[in-house]
Fold these 4 entries.
Entry 1:
Amino acid sequence: MSKTPLFEVENLHVSIEDKEILKGIDLTVNDGEVHALMGPNGSGKSTLAYVIAGHPDYEVTEGTIRYKGEDILEWSPDERAQKGLFLAFQYPTVIPGVSMASFLRMAVKNVREARAEEIALNGGEAKPFTPREFRKLMREKMEMLKMDDSFATRYLNEGFSGGEKKRAEILQMALLEPQLAVLDETDSGLDIDALKVVSEGVNALHDSSDMAMLLITHYQRLLNYIKPDYVHIVMDGRIVREGGPELALELEEKGYENIRKDVAAAAAGN
Amino acid sequence: MSATLTQETGFSRDAVVALSEMKNEPTWLRDARLQAWDVYESIPMPARTDEEWRRTDVRALKLGNLHPFSPNGHKEPSLESLLSGFEKGGVTDRDAQAGILVQKDAATAWAEANPALVDQGVIYCDIDTAAREHEELFKQYFMTQAVPVDFGKFEALHAALWQGGSFLYVPKGVSIEEPFRSFTTSTHPANSVFTHTLIVLEQGAEAFLVDAYGSETFEGQSLASGVVELILGKASKLRYVQMQDWGRDMWSFMTERATLASDATLNSLHVTLGSRFSKSSIGSHLQGEDALAEMLGISFADGDQFFDHHTWQLHESPYATSDLEFKTALKENARTVYSGLIKVSEGAQKTDAYQQNRNLVLSREARADSIPNLEIAANDVRCTHGATISQVVPEHIFYLQARGVPYTEAQKLIVEGFFRPVIDRIPVEEIQGFLEGAIARKVGI
């Protein structure tokens, strides 16, 4: 029997306010793999990201999402995060009055505790996580992402520039150590220097663990820094082409319109 | 151990006499109480036809079942046990306080003041002591200027039956950074607590006082009828924090008035967490030029709590500034009313007044009303006010949940964040911690 895949999306149909956005998505991600999901605006990429994270506004009308073989659709968003799923938001929310440090401590505490339970269930022994360790870990990760110390004392994303918000998302990912990270347009709003720093951080995390990733992006640009194993092109709520890294280059060259024509022609030929 | 209550319930002229006799008070003081009683009797109970009481129904409060006063208490040997109900009251370092006063059922159970300050003429004691030992000051300021006896029904009752309370007097030019900490608690059912805070700062004096009221919840109803009088002399500075965390049997009425002479600065914060019913009237009279009043409020109502805050920014002199921000969070069936008035007198040109009330509603059943008002008789002023009533943004909750934080904890973070900017305006870490702790316990309910 083959090993259960880490993450499977099967015939996923999703609506918001009775409008169907995803019209049958199939996707399988194994441990450590990097998948890029590319597509034009409005194709449904971000919808998929939100549905994976459990956003309550989206209704799954058909199909399933399985994580380590378990159906996750009934899980609350916090349960998903605690089990090792992570979404780096395209537009991280500003929450006034909540300091970055107190929020991160609470997030890490919850995720670690859930993980400790899981380790205990499997007969292992989880190490307790002290505040000192947390501070050390946070300093380390902030250094890796070239983030200023003052970050920790600022309110959550308040007054952050676009680039700072994206770095803060990756910092959270680094602290929570997910097994599957969905990065929604993490490259948008980043200048080339920031893109390099963020990509290096992401690569370091990926290389040091068996974390799998789903990169959602418009452009090939990000993929110059984070190399995907697989590329999927989404249009109008469906995956229309799949391939290796070369597909992203083809897309870059041809543009979405030509791909769309190719797909239409192929469909007509059938 | 608190003494057993033997006296009859209900308020009466006889009760006023009995209280005064129990305390062995001089005739002048007993007469003052009896005069106040006459005023109380002459004023009708507030009705919903009165504008200030329009949204506030006191008919359910049964005054006849209450004990009109508490017996004499005694000093207690340990501060620790006294403050246990206040989670030690945030007093982590006793040497960092200017003074500590603890009152249990209106009897002083603990009183200490930094001797170096006493040497400089600072007085910090309960009001019974003030009336006995500082008669002139008492007669000059106690319910004569800021909140006169005939201010209203409950204020007159207070003037007839006050017990305990705290009195702080700071002479000219004396500046004290450390806080004075007053704690008041009630330890039996059907109690009446008439808390009183009288602070007098002479010219150029500076002080910081934190009042904390708290009790467990008893059967039936209890009454807290408090008066706070803050008298700020020229160029004096007062920081005043009040934290109300009474048990859920308590019906709390609190009237506070500050008078500010020229160049005086008041920074006040009112935190309202406890009681079944709470009506607070908080006002600043800006009587001198260039006076500044910063008035902050935090309240969090849950269950069937009813909170009513009325604020008054009374500009009576030119060039004065007032800056008010009151924030309320509500959940379950709680109901809150905020009503604020900026009143600018005819001569008060160049007034700068700001008033903001923000409400965060956490349940469908909770209801907040906000009524800002302006009454301006001068023509060269800047007055702005704003009120918002909003709900928690679902995207905020989702974001926090997506980081593994469960729904209730996410809500807690958001409520704490809502209050945080106000707490950050208090410069003492220990007091910040005290407030944070109290709010966190409340959010955690």
Entry 2:
Amino acid sequence: MELCSFLTLDSFITDPLTHDFMRKALLMSSLVAAVCGFLSSYLTLKGWALMGDAVSHSVMPGVVVAYALGLPFSLGAFIFGVGSVALIGFIKQKSRVKEDTVIGLVFTGFFALGIVLVSKIKSNIDLHSILFGSPLGISLSDVKQTIFISLLVVILLLIFRKDLMLYCFDPRHAKTVGINVFFLHYLLLTCLSLAAVVGLQSVGIILVVAMLITPGATAYLLTDKFDNMTVISVLSAIISSLIGIYVSFWFDLETGGSIVLAQTFIFLFAFLFAPRYGIFKLKKLFAGYK
Amino acid sequence: METINYQNFRIEAENICVDYNGKVALYDANLRLKPGQICGLVGMNGAGKTTFFNALTGFVNISKGKIRINGESVRSAQKDQTIAYVPQNEGIDSQFPINVWDVVMMGRYGSMNIFRCPRESDVQAVKDAIERVDLTEHLSTPIGNLSGGQRKRTFLARAIAQRASILLLDEPFSGVDIRTEKLISELFIQFKNEGKTILLSTHDMIHVREFCDLVLLINKTVVAYGETSEVFTPENITTTFGGISPDFLFGPES
């Protein structure tokens, strides 16, 4: 990378594309970002940020067990993801401990179980790649699985997009008019678990929650229409992924961290300069000059 | 138009009990309402008003008793869009990125296909409903930019668009402007003439006397129920509010 000073913008973008692993990483990460970004609109509106954190950490032992048994790791992740939520609900109901405490308690427990399992089960699982993601070293079978899961989640979200919006906005009305709220609740959880699985590939388990929260939060500051929010969320997630991967390529930085940092910077930008909800309210600033 | 048999009960709740993980919120509650009746639901905070609504809409399960809506189960009432619930303003996330049109359209979701694509008739129903609550100028206003009264009217429009025959309203008059209050009371008279049944919870005793044919006083269970003129007495109200006299609560009786 000693050529940095000679770079033109053109070669900054095209040079990495000559590498096969970079093309794959860019494509896969964009896809994953799109899925997580789509879902994050719902999670931010539903107030499920902490739940996203819980589920994404809880899938860890599922991934390890699935690897050990030779099952698709999405299956293991799914079982543990949904299982953790069920357990959170159960403990909350049967004890006097407050919900956020229960969430913290359950997901750290699952996460720790995952770490212990990794150390015990001798296999080709690379703890580092699970924790921090490895979009540059993605294998062919991972690619297939990621594409399959991503498409599944996107299709589910597209079909039930309006129902899920209603569920986030006013579940009581949904129930009153005969919409299956129970189903929607678990649909959202299922999508969350699946998104956590694909997300952990590009940014790793620890940071995947950022993929599930930040784009939605950014979009929330920029629009008052739900559909626009979804689009902005997806776009900002994809752009962050591209920026993150390019930056990590040229400056030799950790990829997952770079992607999430890019998202954080976009959020900060929206936080400061969003037309209506930013602190500086750009719209008003411009209006002042007219 | 459906023909309405004014002798049949719209709502029949018999000895219903609701508990949340062993904590009793409502017990042995009874209520029977016919088409065209307006009933006020009066009680303290935590007396079980919202629980009563939740039981009728099927949002919570009853642990004992029986509920019939138009002679059928709560579940089939849900399928038929029979009941509309108009939430308290506080019960809604006003920062949700959604505009008036989309909220009112939600009233039609139950009768749409799985993708919730509006048909011509849905669009018309939404248009009409928004017109009836006088919000036509605010079709595309995000609900966060509406006043409390306008937001209340938006949810009322959703109930109208749903074409429900039973309306449950949680504190319809709290935090609304005079104009909205007048509009709501006019709508109540129209609803009554259309044969709709209305159950509303309120803290305001004047509204009970003004609109309600019947009143249901509750404090975890029914304290008194019947014609407003007979049941809505200072003694009953005092019992409902745990021994505090109505003078203290609402100022001296006129």
Entry 3:
Amino acid sequence: MTDEEERIRQTREILRGHGGERGKLIPILQEIQARFGYLPREAIKEIAKFMRITEIEVLGVATFYNQFRLNPPGKHPVKVCLGTACHMKGGVNILEAWERRLGIKPGQTTPDRQVSLERVACVGCCAMAPVSVVDEEVQGRVSPTRVDGILLSFELEKEKGEENSK
Amino acid sequence: MTDKAKGRIWQAFEEIRGQALKRWEALKDGKRPHLLVGTATCGRAAGALDVVKTLHDELERHKVEAKLTQVGCMGYCYAEPLVIIEKPGYPPICYGYVTPGIASRLVQDFLLGDDPCLEFALGALEENELIPSIFDQPRFKYETRVLLKNCGYIDPEDIYQYIANGGYGGLAKALAMGREGVIEEVKRSGLRGRGGAGFPTGEKWQICRQAAGEPKYVICNADEGDPGAFMDRAILESEPQSVIEGMIIAGYAVGAAKGYIYVRMEYPLAVERARTALKQAQDLGLLGDDILGSDFSFHAEVMRGSGAFVCGEETAMIRSMEGRRGMPRHRPPYPATHGLWGKPTLINNVKTLASVPQIIHRGAPWFASLGTEQSRGTAVFALAGKVLNTGLVEVPMGTSLRQLIFEVGGGIPKGKRFKAVQIGGPSGGCLPESLLDTAIDFDSLTDVGAMMGSGGMVVMDEDNCMVDAARYFLEFTQRESCGKCTMCRLGTRQMLDVLEDITKGKGKIEDIDLLIELGQDVKKGALCGLGKTAPNPILTTIRYFRDEYEVHIKEGRCPAHYCKELTAYYIIPEKCERSCDACVGSCSVEAISTGKRGIKIIDQEKCVKCGTCLEACPPQYDAIIRLSPKSLVPPSKK
């Protein structure tokens, strides 16, 4: 089975757990994204067929919301909080530090698919500002040097993984 | 309702309550120590889960018989991770800034030995003769905890702990009171919507109850999108049952059959805990069919938002729940009559619903006795930014901003000067020092150009630029504008362009009046709350800090040294210690080099103005300064 066929199979499996009523569209998209990390093209087609709406209708909803992404995320998703408290405490400097080190802009993934960068409005940890969410874990009081440290830990982990696979 | 039916409800409830009390007494039997660790999202960000693990391992290793409970947020976020230890023979003691190292000492020295490690303690949680109580601190003179009463003291994933502390008594009472009775009680309490607008809750319930159409829905608005606000997250993570109980009571009062808790997707822990709580309520028959043996049935589930700020607006939220793009529509008709799937829908904020159980349980007069004439009850704020005691605070309505920031919040860190306080998120305003004595209530805040909002409060000091603050909020609303109406889509874009020019020193003096004019037009013309309030941060900063705008435009100078295009970092050669390399090592872009005779020099081309070197320079030298305008930097002589 090709990757694409496998994704279609898994999408159908998810769809089987839902009714086809319109109110289920967003929960379905959320479940698909939770499974694949993004919304694959073929999944969108399947959803449209299942709900009897056009593909563009599904895409229209998916692209309206910040949560959904149409390309696969990196192995380590990084979300930089730019809420008010984080902004006041230099959140922009943190975002710039990530951008500089990774050489990508928010919404992009590094070419080696290791790290993807996103900006988020507020993760609600304002007392720990400035905050970055790395691998779904909230990191408080981040500084540009801390960014370097986190990236170094990714490197070390990667090296370790490579050694183990040897 | 017949007396017999009422009796059945009470009997069913008393049975559950009896079980809950038994469990609670077993937990607090006074024989074994009981450890509580705050593991809400803010605690986790500070490493609370590592502390839990250490405590668990240490207790096991030393074979200490003790109970370890994960609780929610106590509100002292600045001191996370927090641990409370209740050891027989001692008052309950709260420890702050706990690391795994401290955690293992607490087990070894306090639980095994008898040294309560007071050097790590914030204080005791009750009056005693041994150690000072945390409640002796000035903040507790002002704080009145109603909604946050149990937060941080009970296990959010154990419904029995909530019931043992008075939970679901409100629901049982409400079911016996009858629908009209409940609405009357909520009206008499004077409760106003805590989502920001302050609409009288009882009135909204009445409208929804009288509206024609079946089925009716209740939605709990937990799409807390305002950056800088986290009260709703904390409540859902710490005491989700109070929100659910409030929702069931609301559902009963308006005659709804189905409820939804709409939580933003950025709050995964809140979603998880709300789901667990719903399941537990269902298992006990407090939610579902024939609640507590009455003929009222109500089902509820969690809906996750998808990261669109505008979905906090009720009509946009409904669109999104219907599986469409979350765009608001014109009101009226209001959702109370035409809501989800066109049916009457009651939408209340988390804090509004969480207030309801206590209002019913303790009676409307009790609630009405708190706060002011027009704004009853308490206000919960998320205090953040440049203030010492960041975290959650709850004060009676009518408390002044000054008391909240300086007494409860402990004032501004590092001896800096207070500049402004931002209330109400992107819809609110920035208030200056001269307005610090303004009372916190719905009407006083609106009068000065801010608004109660959902409860975010961000304090700014002399290092924050007001023009940039306005730009920040507008950038946010501009980005989140759904694009439906022209005023919001294009108006905010135009205003943002003008503001960006000003922060870059490219502004014109007539821009200020242009911003005011545009702002007023957007306020008038926009369709929904997002657009109507988007100009507030700009209008208030111009009203109270016009001089800062003028200095940016006329002198190309940012008085707060914040706007990057107008500011430069500079090392004063006379002050530089020369053999110290702290700044060189701290710079993540290698912009600092060592020049002649060891003097450090910043390469202005490379510098990204992140401010790390400023913090790295040891205070005894204090050699790095910020200059604005940039032309003040003397030419370097390498």
Entry 4:
Amino acid sequence: MKKGFVSVVIFSCITMFVAFYACGPSGPETIKIGVNAPLTGDIPKVGEGTKFAAEMWLEDINAAGGIQVGDKKYKVELVIEDNESKAESAVKANTKLITEDEVLAIIGPQSSKQAVPAGGKANELETPMISPWSTNPNTTKDRPFVFRGCFLDPFQGPVVANFVKDEFGFTKAAVLYDVASDYPKGLAENFKDAWEKIGTMAAYESFTTKDTDFSSQLTKIRDSGAEFIFTPQYYNEVALIVQQAHQLGWDKPIVGSDSWGSAETVKLCGKDCYGLFFSTHYAAAGATGATKEFIDRYKAKHGYVPDDVGALTWDAMRIVQTAIQNVGELSGDIKKDRKAVRDALAKIKKFEGITGNMDFTEEGDPVKCAVIVRISDTGEFEFYKSVCP
Amino acid sequence: MEASSEKLSNITRLSKISIRTFVSQVPLLGWLLGALIAVALEHFVGTPFARALGLPKALSLFGFLIILKKPFLIPSAVAYVLLIYILPIGIVARSSASIMNKLAGKLLDFPMLFSVIIHLGLLYAVVHWWSDMSLYRNDVARFMLIAVMVTLSLNIINGYMGEFSCSHPGFLALGAYSASVFTVLLFVDDRIFGLAWLPKAIGPLFFPIALIIGGLVAAVGALAVAIPSFRTRGDYLAIISLAFMFIVKSLIENLEAVGGPRGLSSQPNWASLPVVFMCAVLAVWIINNFVRSTFGKALNAVRDNEMAADAMTVNTRRTKMTAFMFGAFWAGVAGGLYAHVVRYVNPGDFDIKKLAEVLAMVYFGGLNSVYGAIVGACGISLLGEALRPLALYKWVIIPLLLILVMIYRPTGLIAFKEFDVKKLIQPKKVSP
């Protein structure tokens, strides 16, 4: 009896499988876009900004009924994956998005530590990927399928150097940076190269991640006769550096980079930061047009002014949308479509983003303007001037 | 009422017993055959079958990913797992049990190596077919096998020798960087090291050498922890080993030659699934032989009572040094593989987070046991992957699970159990 039961089960299974095998695959009715964001780990605020901006974009698309490609409207689905802000996890998340979820394009990862290996995977599997925030040149180098949404450090360094020279006419610079962190170190070197062409370096001081006492470096800088400090640090360190410098009697300017552009900077730093300058992607206060619209919507929904990550992610989403629309027709064969989207991405000219207009170079890096922002006397990021390449 | 509940408990007891006898009668060969047939089934009819059940495609990771995102698909996912995995494995294993028992017995007539190779070949075929379905599975499998190697190597020090060592991410970093420098310098046109010295085509032949170099560098680095361990034990050694980890991280961050904090990228893609599988098998085999040898017993002696061991003519210094260097060697090899799977290394990857991960694997799986290391590594990495859709809540569930394991099995799931290959592959006795 038992044997009979087993053979019935086997038989029915086999007939079922044979029946299913006849069913062919059906064409896609929806476009899937992957988002690879650090929702947990070291920088959850960055992941949150990414997620919120992406979801806002999806709302817009849904309101319009989908993305119009040629004469057909496609619904859009976002697949948001957490990369735990780890390289290994970012690679797995990208592979999952590409092979399991079969997304058409990927937005993210944000920091270079994850974007470099994840970009390698995307390029290997021929899926277009835009990293909105990664500044490491290796992310896009020799990878036709990988793009980025922000300008690179070799551009930002000279921008800051020239701005200081033109604005204040200083000749002696000091740099204070984190030697153990990729972004500050790269930018400090780029700034140094640019500055040494137009002035002299009075001090070039470093510290290590998670240091909180900078008095010895700042004393050296103070005594070196430098006329200003350039410190390309993240918001928590900026507050400490500026406050400690002021306690040591430093009253000359301190200049920063796009890593200052977080709402937390002013919250932590307070009055000490008022009147300081930094270069960044966009200025929230006094923004106009589409930028203001984005900021107002984001603020109304989530209660705070979006960081540059949010703005850059928004632009990256819209770049992908434009590229998909420019493709003209989706074949349903995901591999072909991905290639078509990549080609369309490389061809985008004069894209009007909320972080400025941009074109893409051969490497997949955008050519766009940097903004110099002044922290106003009420703690807002005010547009001061725009520097274009 | 009472009678019916008694009847029910009788039924559950009976079914428990019948499941136990059912399981105990099937040799490993039978299970492997069942798994092979299940993955073959999935390979050929998985996708259309999944579509017919209303699933978007063949389920990876046994459906966890999809049911956490779209709970309404739970019935289809359960049906899929049942019909593709559980039923075929169960039916094939049961119906072939008697033949497989005879076959396993016959195989034992030959040298044991022959039988082991057949088992491993079957196991590889299962893993290969399973991961052939999508590259995502392939990645998961490779990272899992690397995790097995790391956990095993840490188990030598933390489990068998009983020292709480925190330096493993440091060993991994040394191995990863040394192997990467070797391959990138010799075979890749790279920004840091310039043009390749040798043609890339012969590179894969040199990959084992790269891994061994990685292991050796890590082993030499381990001396920095092993020598202080002669005089310090317990908490103090833990601090020393932690310091070692930070020293390695800072060293690499300040070494401009290997990219500093920017990291080192463009490693060649040589760590494919067969390579990683082979390395993991070698690691299990050699480490298992090591811990079952006199040396392994010496480790246990040092752990349980160093003075007594010394009195019984165990050379404690040599024992400690060997254990640290041997563990570090395998960590270094695993690091080299890791670097070539991710194809990018950054000193920030080898920090306290990595340490927490490997320690969790060791203590979850079980101390002093090769089985435990394998179970811990596979369990934590599969769980981490399967709960991915939960994002933040994943970091509530996994630690909670660890706490529960620590409460109910304080030394881990499968601790203090010998990994006896012969016992594993021999035919099971059929009860009359």
